[in-house]
Amino acid sequence: MAYAWMTTDGIYCPRNVLLDLLQAAKFLKCSPLAESVFDCLNDHKYFSELDAFACFLDALAKDNLPIADMMLKRVGKAFLVLVGTKEYQDLDVSSLCDLISSNGLNVQSEIEVFYSALVWLLSDYRKRRKYIGRVLSNVRFDMMHPAFLIQWVDNVEDFQRDLADEIRFSLNNAMITQQENFGEILMSNYFEHGERSWIRDPKCPYGKDLDSDGGCEVSTE
Questions:
Q1: In which band, very low, low, confident or very high, does the pLDDT at 211 lie, cut at 50, 70 and 90?
Q2: Domain assignment of residue 168, given as a range
Q3: Residues 123-163 pLDDT 10s
Q4: Residue 158: exposed, middle, or buried by beta-carbon count in 10 A (0-12, 13-18, 19+)?
Q5: Helices and strands in the chain, H and E counts
Q6: How many structural domains does the chain have?
Q7: Which superkingdom (predicted)?
Q8: Is the separation of the CB atoms in 55 and 73 below 8 Å?
Q9: Which of 88, 47, 93 is nearest to 67 (CA)?
Q10: Which positions ≥6 away from 132 have C-beta within 8 Å?
Q11: Residue 198: its H or E element
């Protein structure tokens, strides 16, 4: 295919062959071909977020870590779709942490990132319990609504003790951070880790709750 690229005006390259073509370009030291492949990988119109995740897995299998890292950052809008897949649950801890720490995740609330972290941990808890602290450190608990944090302090008792302890520790730290930086958080000017790429799905059954302030109306009558 690399030869065809050199001898014709243009070629069609299947998505699952792009990394092989990139490797060929590297072997041939053909920078124009490599640039052409990178253009395809970065084309959001024809190379979707799901394609990027598939390419990430392929790059990981081929030990092409720079490309794997680049593709993982492209997941964005497909994140919530991927959470329920076996491929997501089979991610190694480094890839999982790189993914959920990304500012480019398209989520409706940081709560969704928290639940996604739990999905990964609980899918193979016996082997992954040693990663609890590392994984939860990438969840931005201080961006969650205070009412949710308080509610979850009681809910953690349903989990294994070591997981419950780590979650409770993260929740308490988040509440302290929110209290210390109440003014800045209220004005959306303070978040230690930066923002996410927030989205709203009109069909989301809990979307109304996300947009509410979690309180009730105050009346003097």
A1: low
A2: 140-192
A3: 999 999 999 999 999 999 998 988 899 888 888 888 999 99
A4: exposed
A5: 15, 2
A6: 1
A7: Eukaryota
A8: no
A9: 47
A10: 121, 162, 163, 166
A11: strand 197-198
